[in-house]
Here is the input.
Amino acid sequence: MNRDEAIQAAQEPIDWSGAEVETTPRKVTMVYSTRLPDDLSRWLVEEASRRGTNPSVILRELVAEGKRAAAEDRMITVRLSDLHRAINHAADGTARDR
Here is the structure.
């Protein structure tokens, strides 16, 4: 369809007699504007392209995952020596895996 045909088709009357009214209200959404450094911006666009989606979807998924992680986070108390041992054990394991 060329441009003139598209304009003519858009001007033709539409039969709405079989249309159904959607009564389910849309969820309220908010728009946030953010500035990303070049490297993060490039990663976001590349990741969206790799997944076959757009950057907004990736950002929405990342925020949702952050929310889930924060909800699952809990405060615990450990002895400092136990924490040091755990960190040293993790670091030793990482060094061996390389």
In short: DSSP finds four helices and no strands in the chain. Helices lie at 3-11, 38-51, 55-72, 80-97. The longest helix spans residues 55-72.
